[in-house]
Design a protein that fits this description.
This protein is an alpha/beta fold. The chain is built from five helices and five strands, in the order βαβαβαβαβα. Strands 3-2-1-4-5 form a five-stranded parallel sheet, with helices on both faces.
Length: 147
Amino acid sequence: MKTALFPGSFDPFSIGHQNIVQRGLCIFDKIVIGIGRNTTKQSLYTEEERKAQIEAIYQNNQRVSVAIYDTLTVDFTREIGANFILRGVRTKQDFDYEQKIAEANRILTGIETVVLFAEPETKTISSSLIRELKAFGKDISDYLPQP
């Protein structure tokens, strides 16, 4: 079984994130969306709240699960029995960076990484920008996934 850990490198509420998961499911049998515990900064939501929100998005897909982890991404990948890391990027610069990290992971750990561009790129937006747009009364419906 081909399983990938998707460390949720950008906002799971954006169209781009869901696009990565949908296309990833064409490659992998199962995707685990990982939420790394953040002890250094305060977020709008706790990890548990974020996990519940992401689970609600993917509740009808048995091939997608969500987990919170405290370890290094490569260690957690092994822990859940995944054989790949799935990364989503928005720009060529992000892609180049992720490719370097992927090569280092492969050499050091043997874990392969699949890097996909978020599509449509123009519809990808972070939750912090969405909050800012909302605060100024802007319409954000084009940036949110459709039910």
